[in-house]
Amino acid sequence: QVQLVESGGGLVQPGGSLRLSCAASGSIFRINAMGWYRQAPGKERELVATITSSGTTGYADSVKGRFTISRDNAKNTVYLQMNSLKPEDTAVYYCNARVVITTTRLDYEYWGQGTPVTVSS
User: Fold this and answer.
1) Is 24 within 8 Å of 3 (Cβ atoms)?
2) What does the radius of gyration of the chain's CA atoms come to, in whole angstroms?
3) Which of 47, 94, 102, 114 has the highest Cβ tally under 10 A?
């Protein structure tokens, strides 16, 4: 019913930047909170950043001051601008969204397929 498609991952050197995008499509009545999570090899998935429908943001301590989350409600898209990347930022990054679907007007949680980010020299 709802699909989240991420893009923008890749290989970058330490200190570099990447911008991730996640576009939502399908039976969308309204998108509430959106966010980015990441999962490094051998570790649990962790929250990176969130943004409400009104634009209120929250960040993990490890990325504060380096990452910026934003969204374009007209395009049903959320972005993650990542600057000053470190090797410990290496992970698969997943998009998450709470979506009210058109058929039931109920809120459901959806995940993207993940996009890999590798920070290495």
Assistant:
1) yes
2) 14
3) 94
